[in-house]
Amino acid sequence: xxxxxxxxxxxxxxxxxxxxxxxxxxxxxxxxxxxxxxxxxxxxxxxxxxxxxxxxxxxxxxxxxxxxxxxxxxxxxxxxxxxxxxxxxxxxxxxxxxxxxxxxxxxxxxxxxxxxxx
Length: 118
Prior knowledge:
The chain is mainly β. The protein is built from no helices and 11 strands. Strands 2, 4, 5, 6, 9, 10 and 11 form a 7-stranded mixed beta sheet that branches. The chain has a 4-stranded antiparallel beta sheet with strand order 1-3-8-7, with no helix packed on it. β4 (34-39) and β5 (46-51) form a beta hairpin.
């Protein structure tokens, strides 16, 4: 069965960095587009970033970001490790949320908490 396991969350000061990981299993990882979402307390889950699959070579590794994280976050993937990453730099208190890994059709990880606070 499909499994997505996030890790790497924690408490960081404003301006700091964290790298989240999402280890995937149960499907052909290299052919799947992977996404990160986040959900802050009292708010709806929101889109963060996407990295395309390697199935369509013309778009392999292409990325997309929410405006709120563009220029600060970087999504990447290692198909040899079936893992997708989210490098988060220049973190702000408003980045505090549970971060989720996602792949279609409808598979979510359990989430990892990121708290940005001094």
